[in-house]
Amino acid sequence: QDVCALMGQEAQSKGIKLESTCDSDVPPWVSGDETRVRQILFNLLSNALKFTKEGRISVRVRRSKSHANGLVLSVQDTGSGMDRQTVEQLFTRFFQADTTRRRRASGTGLGLEISRNLARMMGGDIQVSSQPGVGSVFSVTLQLPAVDAPSVETLPEPGEDQARRLRVLVAEDHP
After folding, report:
1. pLDDT below 70 — which residues of the chain?
2. Are residues 146 and 29 in contact, defined by beta-carbon separation less than 8 angstroms?
3. In the 8-state DSSP scheme, what is residue 119?
């Protein structure tokens, strides 16, 4: 929901419906690297927004049928879609699906490779199904075992994380 909220404004400005659902049997708390899960979803949603001109993007979280501790995060779009040859090369470093689209959509060609590596470090992987002119579905399976909710003592106080001083450098050569 956090990642969808972050990307929602861009989707709305393009006239694309962005929706998210979580199946009722998904555990309320799981053990995993929150930052990396968000990074994977952010990369997948960012790509879906780049290549979807109209329609919708759906994010769904469900339990894996094949892994006891597995969750599947899927991002489905009604974008331009890809042929089989393109899908086979998607996770190649610096690969751009379409060089004419690259100029409009920009990007380094590293997001999907990084996302797949992160998923594999969490005991999972990313699968893709796509059809030209119909859209794509990226499914990320992660090993995220269910855990009990953290105790109140371990939760940060409101505003506590704002006390940390962060330094951020942003460098951009694109207008």
Report:
1. 93-109, 152-164
2. yes
3. H
Q: Check: CB of residue 97 under 8 Å from CB of residue 85.
A: no
Query: H or E segment at 99?
Result: helix 99-105
Amino acid at 47: N
Residue 86 is predicted with a pLDDT of 87
Backbone angles phi, psi at 61, to 5 degrees: -115, 130
| Cα torsion angle, 42, 32, 161, 156, sign | positive
Of 31, 100, 15, 116, nearest in space to 70 by CA: 31
Tokens of 83: 């042929």
pLDDT 10s digits, 117-151: 999 999 999 999 999 999 999 999 999 999 998 87
- Exposed, middle or buried, 146 (CB in 10 Å: 0-12/13-18/19+)? middle
